[in-house]
Each structure stands twice: as structure tokens, then as C-alpha cells.
Amino acid sequence: MATKYISIQEGMDKGTGKVSLRGWVHRERGSSKLKFIVLRDSTQLIQCVLKRDKFDAQWDAIDKLQVESSIMLTGEIKADERAPTGFEVQVDKLEIVHASDKYPITKDTSIEHLADHRHLWLRSRKMTAILKIRSTIFGAIDEYFKGEGFYEYHSPIFQAVQCEGGSDLFHVDYFGKKDVFLAQTWQLYAEPAIFGLEKIYTISPSFRAEKSKTSRHLTEYWHAEMEMAWADFKDIQDHGEALLKFVVKRVLEKHKPEFELLERDWKLLEPTVKKPFVRMTYTDALKILKDKCKMDVPWGKDLRTIEEEKLTKLYDVPVIVTHYPKEVKAFYMTEDPKDPKVVQGCDFLAPEGHGEIIGGSHREHDLEKIKQRLRDDGEKPEEYEFYLDTRRYGSVPHGGFGLGVERIIKWICGLDTIKDAIPFPRTMERYKP
Prior knowledge:
The chain is an alpha+beta fold and 433 residues long. The chain has helices at 8-14, 59-63, 111-116, 118-121, 125-147, 187-190, 194-197, 233-254, 256-262, 270-274, 282-293, 305-312, 367-376, 385-388, 405-413; strands at residues 17-30, 34-40, 45-51, 70-79, 87-98, 151-152, 158-159, 171-174, 177-182, 199-207, 220-229, 278-281, 319-322, 335-336, 339-343, 345-350, 355-362, 398-404. α5 (125-147) packs across α8, α5 packs across α9 (256-262) and α5 (125-147) packs across α15 (405-413).
């Protein structure tokens, strides 16, 4: 009969009796008569004790085991307060699946070395904890939108028009055609679908060729986006707030052990679930920055990272800043009917200085205004004919937003850099491994 292997966590939940476990050597130490192996799998760590008199024939091989060797073992599990995670296995049987070479990652490894060996650093407990939380966040986004009656919809990655500004486009050679780009966003290809499906969302890669080396930027990131027909500006803000509350709630329900491992104070996230978000206009934000942070930002300038950080440190929940100057926002945002100098656009800024995580707006549905905004941005309206058709045939009020998933992971996990929020970060300086 084949041995039934269980996870380390299942073994610890069992508490006593015979268990069969498998995983990788996380730590090892010992003497000529006794070997202590801390075994790791995706769920937990556990100390395993091997006595030489039970493994005399295998002892040479066991004594040579190094970090990251893969093994399978059977033994008696019991509680032991002295063990790293409170349990210990007295091993009766061990099989070496693969004896690892000398592992290139040590305690004193530099950040650059970890980046060069990212494929191995994913095994670290820190990265494993982040990736578990990341998985829950993706699932929660999907769960929220489906629960609200949205349809999942997919737009092309190869696109022929720009949406967020031409300076950060990745051009590709598409069978000799040069005017093709990697998607900055799904938006221009999503809006046509709302006239059939009405409420849609996606979670998809986006690409920005921004020449930025900050802790908040990636050239390839995952974008959760939504678009809905018949929406007003408040609907977009309300959905953004409800989505973030839902995501944070799901993570708090499932990942207290991961927060402990990351040394992240999860109580800092509770206000996001329990309290309403702070909402203010761009003009109000400038006044608060001047009065409380001694930062004098001229009206008409976009908020930089430093201003966003200062503003968000004043509150324990996300801040929604609305009604930005028209000149600093995209051509598709609706002018405010009460003040044409500003648009019905909003940015959600995460607490603790993590900055923008959502950008959204009510979409302009006046055909001539869109054409003029495109001309003002140096674009040719005739290249956007497929998009302009959405305003010619039964246009309706609508809007949407985009959420940078790695940015929300960075905030929720309390990370210093967004590079740790994704398995293989792509930045201005790194495209491998």
C-alpha cells in the first residue's frame, strides 16, 4: 500500500501519532550520532530528529544533506515547546529524493544577489507568505466582481492606440508593422463591450515603459479593471471602496500567520474594513497639504509620490482624491458640469504612505469633446474610429477604474518595494531571470 503523505500543517493539527511528510531541508545541524532537520513545505516548518542507530546504513548520505535537499520521511509527531514551531518528529524512515548542491542564498546575501537568484528566492518563507496573500487577493477581486453581477471580459494585449500617454508605450514589431504596442490598459477595448454586457471586469497584465526606478513602479504589472454602463461618478468611487474593503477583509480572515512571518501589524488594516474612506477634492487636498504638511503645491500640478505619501500618513484609511485638473488627466475623463477646469476622475491613495492604488473616472460621452481632447494631446482622432463609434451609436453615461494589484499587495503586506509583490519583477533595469 502506497504511503499517504500529509502536509506539515496537517501533521501539526493531528498532534500525535505516526505521520508521513515530505518537503525540503530548511535548516540542518547535528553530530555524529544525532541529526536535526527543519523540514519545510508550503504550509509550515517542523523539526525532525534522526538518530544514527536507526539509520546506520544511510548515515553518510544523511550527514551530507544540505539546505534545499528534498526528502520524504515517516515518524512519530509530538508537541515540543523547544522546537521552532512547537512540534517535533522522531523519524523512523527517510528517503532522499534529491541531495541539493550548495545553496547559493545565505543570510548575508545582497539584494542584487537575491534578484539574480529570484527563481530560488521564491522558496524563502518571506516570498512564500507574500505569494499566498497575493493568491488570496486575486481570488477576492474575482469573487467581489462576480458577486456584484460583473462579467469577466478580456481585451487584447497587442493594441494599436495609446490610452494613458504615448511616452510610456512598449512598441513591438508586429510582422513589420511598427504602430503596435503592448497594452497599457484594457480600457479603450473594454468600453465597447459595456453596450452588450453592461458590467465587466478583468485581471490582466499591463505594460508601462516608464523610466522610473522608484519602489512603486514596474514595467509589467497585473491590472484589475472594471467598466460599467449607466454609472455616475459616485458609483465608481463606491465600487472602488467596496472592492478594497472586501479584499482586505478576505486577507485578514485567512493570513494572520503570514502577517506574523512578515512582521506586519495586521491591525493597521482593520480601519479599512470598518471605517468609511476619506473623500476630498484635489483642491481640498492641496489645502490640507499646505496647512498640515507645510507643502505648497501650485494648483494645476499633479500630485507627486511625496505629496501622496504625506497626505495618506494623515489618515488610517484610504483617501479618495477627486476632481483633478483636466490638463493632468486622460482625454476620456468627463469634465465636471459645475467646473470645466476639472474632471470627474479619482485616485485612491493607500494609507501609511503607499500612495495611489486605484485610478478611475466617469467617461466622457460627448463625441466632439473627445475628438478635441485627442487633438489637444497630439493624437489623430481618425486613428480612434473604433472607439469613437461607441459615442455614435447609443452612448450612455458610464465609467470605470483600474487597480494595480501589486500596489495593493505592497500596501497590505507592508512591503518596502513593489518588486517583492510579484514573483519575477520587471523594471527599467531588470528583465531576467
